Hints:
The chain contains 13 helices and two strands. The protein is mostly helical.
Amino acid sequence: MNTSQPRARWSDKLAQGCRSIRIAFLGLAALGLQYTKTSLLIAIALSFLVSLVADRINPYWLYISYDIAISIIMAVSLNLINGYTGQFSLGHAGFMAVGGYAAAMITNQFGHLNFFAADGIFAVALLAGGLAAAATGLLVGLPTLRLRGDYLAIVTLGFGEIIRVIFQNMNSVGGARGLSVAHGWTNFFWSFGLVAVTVYVVASLVNSTYGCGFIAVHDDEIAAEAMGINTTKYKVTAFVIGAFFAGIAGGLYAHAKQFLTPGGFGFMQSITFVVMVILGGMGNTIGVILAAILLTLLPEGLRYLAGIEHVPGIAQAFPLGWIGDTRMIIYSLLLIVLMLTRPQGLFRLRKRKT
């Protein structure tokens, strides 16, 4: 039996993947961008200014803001894959785990060398985590290129669980016991500065001439191929870019919580990010951002209500303590209601007629 053809096919896929990475990370500056660099710089500057007075903010709400930023990065990056490119990934938490563990291992190893170079070490760790997750995204993308819809969802779900199980059985990263992260370097500047970068890159990419290829793949992959569009390249590019930013979010998560466990990156975490994309409106960056904020604050709001013994001004015959026992059930029911009443997305904006 001739084995040269399968080998050649895999070599072609690998070459296409490498070209996609080069296009994704080196070609963005040359794209026609709708979102100005001025907006990006303003957002980063505002993040820096707020971080200067972060010590005056309630620590609880400050850490909630970190969770919001991480959720936005995860949702916006997943929206590139699920929303704009039309694929269906259920393993996004796996990319987050790769980035989180990679960044944590680097800072644990080198973070103590120079206190004054902490920001530089943290930046290198986040970048390394993003690149490690991007490489994992490439490995996921190459063998799943021919799959679509439910089949792709099952495969990505399997990859996500494989990643979780690998970390769970790696003693070098703590295994099932978890990994302690020595430095809590995540702050308001890093969190929302990277939110601005993520939104800028994804929104600018899909609104560029090159980004029309993602929309074409989403609308009709067969027709796009007939028109000469290399759908393989666009799908791999979406996976790589989405995984890269998920890895960065994982690095932020690791240095905010300062403890990692494989169970924190399971199937349900991926489902949460998918719900954010669907609730915000597939392919709608602003809507996805709002949905990420809403779904991060909603459990905290229910937790707050559970701590109130009774509604002020109403007799104590109406206690609210039961919310604490049924908080996640209420959360799930609210999601079901929102999905039934707004299947097109809660924040789906109507397109203007031209």
